[in-house]
Please model this.
Amino acid sequence: MSKVRVYEIAKQIGISNKELLSTLKEFDIEVKNHMSSLTDEEVGIITEYFTPQENNETENAQEETEEISMEDAEIIMIPENITVKNLAEKLDKQSSELVKSLMLKGVMATANQEIDFETASQIAEEFDILLEKEPEKDIVEEFFAEEPDDEKDLVTRSPIVVVMGHVDHGKTSLLDAIRESNVTSREAGGITQHIGASVVTINDHDITFLDTPGHEAFTAMRLRGAMATDIAILVVAADDGVMPQTIEAINHAKAAGVQIIVAVNKIDKPGANQDRVKQELVEYGLVAEDWGGDTICVPVSAIEKTNLDQLLEMILLVSEMEELRANPNKKASGTIVEAQLDKGRGPVATVLIQNGTLKVGDSIIAGTSYGRIRAMIDDKGRRVKKAGPSTPVEILGLSEVPVAGDAFYTAKNEREARHVADKVIERNREKLLQNTPQKVTLDDLFTQIQSGNMKELNLVVKADVQGSVEAVKQSLVKLSNEEVVIKVIHGGVGAINESDVMLASASNAIIIGFNVRPEASAKAVADNEKIDIRLYRVIYNAIEDIEAAMKGMLDPEYREKVIGHAEIRQTFKVSGVGTIAGSYVLDGKFTRNSQVRLVRDGIVIYEGELASLKRFKDDVKEVNTGYECGIMLNKFNDVKESDIVEAFIMEEIPR
Model:
């Protein structure tokens, strides 16, 4: 097959494409349009047919005609699909002319209607204009492409430091000592289950700290923390040594190419042995400087606040050696550190700016989320107008909760941001389509695996913050084995709603709730659809339950039964007693011996026992629907109006 196309032959013999196409028909040579290729034999037939006409002319005239024909032939690039109006502009014709031509071909189209490339080519041929397809551009890739920086635009920036290490080795306590705050008291069981960012100033230099969880299940979050940072502080307890998550943290830091500084914590404890820690670190390629290596080791005590200044000075020293620089005079880009849904403020994201300057009013995109920044709050809770490289800020104004760990970029305007986000959603849509026929619960999971009905276990994961969603997903997917593959088909932030239940129903999934509760309407739909909802406060329990169910050893003896809900309408502070919550029982009943949980915006704030249940001034055994009562929670006073109190009992299930 020759590479010669119809329009090229038309140019050579000096006739229009239309004329040549009709001649080809006479010779029974079938072609689709002027872009079609011809065989050598067909080229010979056509050339021979037109040669006598050209013999009357002189050779010079032939060459001249050919040159003019080649010069006059106009080639216009258009996309795969184009509106009639845009095509008219490109062809320099009136839209009405093109609409008329289309009607004659039997195509009814308005000026704003799209036509395909083939139809557009046929129209253009009538005006002796050639069309070629534009190479397709990937809008998403083009938008996210990094522009190289000019050396003269780069300025020194603050180091971003991540604190890593094993659970309970004192990472958060060390950070508390540095920034003189107290985070651990707010975390369930003293384990950091979220990720935060803060800025500390030493010797007129800023250092940005990321606190990542040390729990084994939060590998994904720690990996994310390492990728966004310049220096990793590896906290190792002097009395405990190198542990599984310490090794994990070392691997993450090395994979991210991050400089490691070892902080040997708890040196004030009786069983502390720094040399043992250094010896164990040698096995993983970290040799202390006093042992002839190049790893900085600083012995510290978070409780006694020993050597903290030395640790901060080492961070500044390493950052100077690394020559950390960024360009503040460009569009901002960086990483989403944390994201959650706030009832009053909507989607809230903590972002870490890595390049450029982010300003209030900028339009940004992060994955499928986009929006115009309405407000920015720094780590001290102050409103700021702009933030430069290495600065963590909380932003408001996004369309939805972004995924923690996603990169964010600044767009020209909100329209462009929405357009790119739509393209990203389009790409991800097919991944979300799931279709599995029958319902499954953890109780009958093993039976279904044994009978060969269950090849995949689908899960819907909901948690209080995006970081926890990622961590729970990562941990549960790891439980997959040869018989059954665990797939997390959806992960989101906030209370379990009807949409989650309907997704679980359509894809035969189990819903896992971490630190959240189902809405009343969602609970009703779940009961109706027979959807299994499992709620947890600690991630270990979720992993243990699914593991046990897969092995066929899940045999619950007790199950939680919700017996009532009450809304807090007013609070009374009584000195020496605590805070009494004046409540109205919405449904069910409250009994003196029931356990309760306090739910605020779908998030569980407290779970425990009732300290007292009163009607007016009298203690009562129970309060029914539609009555008011006074509730006191055991050793907990942070109650607010509009909070929901849920009463439940543990019901025995026969084996």
Q: What stands out?
A: The chain has five domains: 6-133, 160-323, 333-426, 445-555, 559-652.
